[in-house]
Amino acid sequence: MNTAPLTYQIIDHTADLGIIVKGVNEKDVFIRAAYAMTDIMVKGDINKKTVIKDVSLQGDDFPDLMVKWLGEILYLFNGEKLVVHSIEITSISSIMLQSTLTLSSFEPKDHQVKREIKAVTYHQIFVDNVNDGWQARIIFDI
Length: 142
Hints:
By secondary structure, the chain is of the alpha+beta class. The protein has a single domain, classed as Archease, Possible Chaperone, Chain: A, domain 1, CATH 3.55.10.10. It contains two helices and ten strands; from the N terminus they run ββαββαββββββ. It has helices at 26-41, 62-80; strands at residues 8-13, 16-23, 42-44, 51-58, 82-93, 96-105, 111-113, 119-120, 126-130, 133-141. Strands 1, 2, 8, 9 and 10 form a five-stranded antiparallel sheet that branches. The protein has a three-stranded antiparallel sheet with strand order 4-6-5, with helices on one face. Strand 5 and strand 6 form a beta hairpin. Helix 1 runs parallel beside helix 2.
């Protein structure tokens, strides 16, 4: 996982959970949002790199792309029992994202589910350049 300190803010939302993530640019905010979601879901050592996956997505705009991006990472966790270890976004625009994910297998002896996230929602989604960087607000159905 990235060695830079992970900072995000959890926001209260009825029956859901939201986060606000800040980054220096669009790549950074997408990477930090993925790490924040992973941090919310999983506790334990995820340093065993087991799988490398290329992920390419298309969306209508940055908010749509964020929902699809985090939805893909959520699918990898729920569907394939893979946890994000590291992320490289090789290309990003308002309608396309290409990345390489290094993932660890979820092992019950090494990991614990902290919070189950059912879905990434479009409710109040926000991803944009604000002041001196980028910011995203994402609401999860829990």
